[in-house]
Design goal:
Shape: globular
Order of helices and strands: EHEEEEHEEEHHE
Number of strands: 9
Radius of gyration: 15 Å
Mean pLDDT: 95
Low-confidence stretches: none
Number of helices: 4
């Protein structure tokens, strides 16, 4: 699971089941996304599509790295671009990756060490949970809510 900071956009991310970041910050894809804010991973979702966008010559171009480019996903990307403007984000200024998940499930995977997480972090869920085969994403979220990390 790759954990991303999602403070201002957390509610949109959960509602739309998508997380976005600049292409430069997200070179590698992971099977799960964790949404972090206020010293805890607050949501986890299994990635089912990754779409890269680039805005050039007044045209928004889409490229699928995983899954399919659908009209619904294009609409969600347009909604993310509009929502981001509320926080001063210009999602058209550089290429972005949009990570679509089946659903973000609520969790409370708390960080116990001093201070907030300063960077993205990767967790090996198999190792963390001590199992070879991962259960459903909802079950993972429930298990993580009973654990902490430093």
């Amino acid at each position: 699971m790759k954990m991303y900071g999602a403070g201002t956009t957390l509610q949109f991310n959960k509602k739309a089941n998508v997380y976005y970041d600049t292409l430069a910050h997200s070179p590698q894809n992971y099977p799960y996304i964790g949404l972090y804010t206020d010293k805890a991973v607050r949501g986890i979702g299994k990635v089912n599509a990754v779409i890269v966008t680039e805005f050039a010559d007044n045209v928004l171009m889409y490229r699928a790295e995983q899954g399919e480019i659908t009209d619904e996903r294009k609409q969600t990307i347009l909604e993310a671009i509009e929502d981001g403007k509320k926080y001063g984000y210009n999602l058209l200024r550089c290429p972005h990756k949009y990570f679509f998940v089946e659903q973000f499930f609520q969790t409370e995977y708390k960080k116990t060490s001093y201070g907030g997480a300063r960077f993205v972090k990767v967790f090996d869920l198999n190792k963390l949970l001590g199992i070879d085969e991962l259960p459903s994403t909802e079950e993972i979220a429930n298990i993580l809510a009973e654990k902490t990390w430093e």
